[in-house]
Amino acid sequence: MTLLVAFGMPGIMSSWGLAALHAIAREAFVDYCTFQIGTLPDLKSAWDNRTSENVIVTAQHPDAQLCAFLMRSKTPYILFSENALDSVLYLARHMERQDASIVQAISASIACLSQLKKHPFLVHFDREKIGATPIHLILAHICRQFGISLSTGGMVRCLKSLGFDPVQSRAQIDQIPTFEQSAAKINYCYSAPGTRHEDIPENLQGMARGALAPFDHKILNGEVSGIVWPQESFLLADKGGEPAEGEITLVGRARCLVYGPYFHLPSGEWTAKYSLGIEQNVYGQIFTIEVHSDGLLSKIRVRPSGTGSFAAEAAFRIDSPKTPIEIRLFTDTGSIEGSIAYWSVELTAIGLRNHDSDPPLDMVPEYNQDEAETAPEKVNHAE
Predict the structure, then answer these.
(1) What is the secondary structure of 71-124 as a DSSP string?
(2) What is the tally of structural domains in the chain?
(3) pLDDT of residue 351
(4) Adjacent-strand bridge partners of 325
(5) Which of the four pLDDT bands, split at 50, 70 and 90, describes residue 68?
């Protein structure tokens, strides 16, 4: 009876990793079955409904209960990740769409996968760190992680299914492709890491750089700062949910101005810094800013004293990374003039990393692998 558990954010690395697991399973087992899971009940259902004693389970968005269960177990598992912009490019091509839902999906995956960081039996495959590694070393490492032994012939057949095409009848080590060479052969969405980002629309690039890129190489490894949810990731309440691009008018009744962006954050304590640029005088206007996820997480009030740049901060706690976050900006009273020139939210983790936890195992050491309660009401004035 064998259980292989693999997690990964959307991307070339995860897609290749799943293909590698299938190649290994075909050689190691007489038969096997696979399931995509996201919750502990999903895992139980997969086990109860398995058609083989050998099971592969994969997930991109494991919830807190599933992660907690795995961290208590001694089950080895693997994680696949890559650069955020490369992940955005892959998913945009794979889904044939280019909108905020791409960033929302990847932020959900990153937030959920970050819960796995405490597990001592984790091996993390980061695309940027293994791109030049020959794939037979990667396959061998996966096999060691799961306690699988392959014959020489079985390994060669795995290599061939992943793009190895020996020019002689006998396989030669120097003919074995690297990870990037292999991925290019087997994935139609492939592009080399760090390339073709110009194919991503500028507004989507801005969202990805602000909301996702700060997690590059930190999905398991520490506190994250500098996360920015830019104005274009929010939606205009006055215009039926259109992207909040350009000036936001205040003229009219008291109301919700913008909401969104439905991105995700890892569990833990967070500080949000709200930045507003007041272009026209709004003396006396009070803004209310709320954070919602599993209920109301934070609520503050901000009263600018004139035109210029203003900022307010609030702390809140995330307990369910799988639940999207909605921030709402309201005016408390009607206005006959005034506008917001810009609006953004910067987020910083507070004590996200447990420094006493066991570090994840490095990949392919032979190749020197690198390793809420509602906030009290307050009034904020110009910086």
Answers:
(1) HHS---EEEEE--HHHHHHHHHHHHT--SHHHHHHHHHHHHHHGGGGG-TTEEE
(2) 2
(3) 67
(4) 263
(5) confident
Q: Which residues pair with 348 in a beta bridge?
A: 271
Radius of gyration of the chain (CA): 24
Q: Which two tokens stand for residue 247?
A: 């000036």
Lowest mean per-residue pLDDT among 45-54, 137-146, 191-200, 219-228: 219-228
Please count the other Cβ atoms lying within 10 Å of the Cβ belonging to residue 275. Answer: 16
Cα distance between residue 309 and residue 382, in whole Å: 6
Q: Is 137 helix (H, G, I), strand (E, B) or coil?
A: helix
Helix (H) / strand (E) element for 13: namely helix 12-28
Burial class (CB in 10 A: 0-12, 13-18, 19+), 347: buried
For residues 18 and 6, give the distance between their C-alpha atoms in angstroms, rounded to a whole number.
8
Query: CA–CA distance from 189 to each of 15, 160, 192 (Å)?
Result: 10, 20, 10
Q: Residue 327 is part of a domain; what is its CATH number? A: 2.60.120.260
Which domain covers residue 38, as residue numbers? 2-186
Q: In whole angstroms, give the CA distance from residue 185 to residue 283.
A: 62
CATH number of residue 131's parent domain: 3.40.50.300
Distance CA 137, CA 297 (A): 46
Which pTM does this prediction carry? Answer: 0.87
DSSP character at residue 218: T
Q: Tell whether the model's pLDDT for residue 301 goes beyond 90.
A: yes
Tokens of 298: 């934070």
pLDDT of residue 171: 53
Burial 282-312 (b: 16+ CB within 10 A, else e): beebebbbbbbbeeebbbbebbbeebeebeb
